[in-house]
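Hi V.,

You were right to ask for the full record rather than a summary. Here it is.
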Amino acid sequence: MKQFHRGGLGAAAIWLATLGQAAAQDTTGSSLDSGDTAWMLTATALVLMMTIPGLALFYGGMVRRKNVLATIMQSFAVACLVTVLWMAAGYSIAFTDGGALNAWIGGSDRLMLAGLGVDSVSGTVPETVFAMFQLTFAIITPALICGAFADRMKFSALLWFVGAWLLVVYCPIAHWVWGGGFLADDGVLDFAGGTVVHINSGIAGLVAALVIGRRVGFGTENMAPHNLVLSVIGASLLWVGWFGFNAGSAVAANGLAGMAMAVTQIATAAAALAWMFVEWATRGKPSVLGIISGAVAGLVAITPASGFVTPSGALWIGLIAGLVCFWMVTWVKGRLGYDDSLDVFGIHGMGGIVGAVLTGVFAAPEIGGAAGPLHGNAGQVWTQIVGIAATVIWSGLGAFVILKVIDLTIGIRVSKDVEVEGLDVNLHGEVVH
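Predicted structure:
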């Protein structure tokens, strides 16, 4: 068994797969643990809170007033749509045994959550809890993508894109890493979603921004956030919810969950300070938008590493992520000229890549059983790069094809007049005064 299998969000699924069962099926000899169950119920609620209201407020505060309701609506509607699709097919695609195709995709055992009962157990928690915990990850990933094309995508096109992308891109990648697929077998380390969630959403967001094109007035009009108070509240909810995201990925109330919580806090604070101080030094003033962006960069970067690194490793990951993401958002984006509205690629894509690589560097065997070059396993970094490359290719290709198909059928972008007047009144018939 690969070292990856000793910990992480997919631990229970992979353990079941090694017994020759679907990851989502009942386990022989498994017993329910009330402490683990109570923690996972809490963690599931915390991760759902990251999207609604956390991400909704974080993104809603950063757009212009005329688009705030449309932006918040995106997060809420995504949560609803993904829930139904996850129940219908997503969970089964990601977390059941795909037989001969298991390296690439799961099977059909849990379509419509068939066979899921009150006695179904995954590891030491009810399978219903495991499935809903996984659902909250599936919700936030496409919701993150929406920030890249804020202010200019049709709502109907958004729904079609999210639905198709979830089933064609997210669920297979989740299976590759957490459901016993080929990246898990190769030993890729991703405790809580550096590849599955953040690189995946960051690359899809970049592709969407490029395919849809720049906002009207980009580079010439003032597009400053309309209400940073909302964004600070949203970022704070993301930070708190992230403890469910990372510590919950231990799928147990144990020491690994405690360490994941500790390193999450450390890396987040370090990244926020790194962004704040470098912005202060280069621009003369530390901004509120900067410190909350740095905090999110730290949360992103520690995600894949949270079950594998020590507190000192987390400190370095946070510091490096804060600096790299600041550089991407404030320098690289301007030089390349792409319009990633809310910096999905700059923070989630690049933060996820930094975190995934540094997971391989700082992995300590006494934490999650996996070793990096600092502990004699130089090959782990290359393994991480392979996982990153596979995610980038499939996410980018899938997003591009889906967007092109939608554009050829119903169109993906609102008209210029709608964009100038605002999405709130034109798409939803409501405005914020």
